[in-house]
Write a structure and sequence with these properties.
Elements lengths: L2 H12 L4 E2 L2 H5 L7 H7 L11 E3 L4 H13 L4 E4 L16 E4 L6 E5 L4 E5 L4 H10 L2 E2 L12 H6 L7 H4 L2 H4 E7 L5 E4 L11 H5 L8 E8 L1 E2 L3 E9 L2 H13 L4 E7 L1 H5 L13 E9 L1 H17 L3 E3 L2 H8 L6 H6 L3 E10 H16 L6 E10 L2 E10 L4 H21 L18 H5 L1 H13 L23 H5 L2
Parallel strand pairs: 2-4, 3-4
Antiparallel strand pairs: 1-2, 5-6, 6-10, 7-11, 8-9, 8-10, 12-14, 12-15, 13-14, 13-17, 16-18, 17-18
Helix pairs in contact: 1-4, 15-16
Amino acid sequence: MKDHNLAAACAALIGADHVLTDETARDGYAHDRLPYANFRAREGARVGTLPGMVLRPRTTEEVAGLVRLAAEADQPVIPYGSGSGVLGGIIPLGGEVMLDMQRMDRILEVDTENRLVTVEAGMNGGAFEEALNAQGFTSGHLPQSLTISTVGGWAACRGGGQESSRYGKIENIVVGLKAVLPDGRVMEVRPLPKRATGPSILDLIVGNEGTLAVITELTLRIWALPEAEEALVFALPDRAAALGLAKRVMQAGLHPRIVRLYDEKETKGRVVGIGEFVERPVMANIVLAGEAPIVAAEAEVVRSFARDVGAVETVRAPFDAWRDHRYTSITKQWLDKGYYNDTIEVTVNWTEAAALYDTIANQVAALHPEAHFSAHWSHVYPEGVCQYMTLRLPPMPQAEALPIHEKMWAIATGETLAHGGSIAHHHGSGLFRGPWMDGEHGVGMDLLRLVKKAIDPQNLFNPGKLGLPPRPGAVDPYRDRRANV
């Protein structure tokens, strides 16, 4: 089936207004927020290709029909939420068709008895949370990208919100879903509290990034909005004390809503004029929430733990300032000024957290006299922590900057693996982390390739992502990176 015949067949199914073939329209779907792609765009270069066309389905049945048409035409497809990813996960490599899911934007049911919500995958995250709040609930999944991402995107990339220490990551929140497979069949995982009937099919789909299935509906846990909250801000003598405090809080079985630790660099600009930080340059924000008596009790326990590591409680103004801007990224501000700004989030067990930070910081500093490295720890768990790093270079020629940027990524990712960590906490893998996926999974990556081949023998669904093979004739997305190292 030729492209024009495919477009006509798709138009017959979903309406011509929802089949976009104009080049300008397609260009808007050719990229996400991958910093490397934005760097290359400064000089007019594209990472990947334009999509062949854009399709905007309204129902699960329409998605299934479009997938069957694409399979008949041997035309690969990529599901698209709202393009908020930062790893190139939706960048076409060979003129793929984009399935824009944003017309599928309804809450289908709020089940107050079982504390579940069923929602279409294309619903905007901010609108979703606002609708739940209006009924007295929260989704518990509040990423920085809340207002520019979709619920389906959260699940597809296996995300983690800013309150994951209390409510869990998205894989802990999703309990059911509907998804379309590469042959057009619709698969449903019913929302139940537990099943012991073999490996988890749900976990195979959550995090697949559109390589195995197109998620169309999700059923998630919801929680009542907490009746009480107490935000504690501490000044600590060093990073070791902050990490030790967070570890003790989580291993004591407390349930903080938010835990955010900042290194000296990221603390400094947030605490101007607050005297306690002169001698204690590291900040920790710990927020307790829930029933009032529990919040009061947990707050006192946290205060006692803080005193044990030499922390001093301060005013809560730094936390309030963060909360006021919690859904705003600073990356664009630096990009607009010509800087090369990127972020990398990894996970590591407590035993290696301090060493991982020091190792990466020292190696990045050696790359360039103006190389910036800083970090905060914003998702903490009993077994370990997410280290969220900012790396930045000043304005300079791309021929000089891109090799250093590549080395920064190689250091951060390679050292994470060397310290026994994982190369991603919540941004997913997409395109940019592909070269490190074998190091991440080992033999498990061979298993994932076998699953992909069995489920998607035509390699129709988002080829070339998650470290999986591209289709023949696809552009090499790493050509510039290889040339610069």
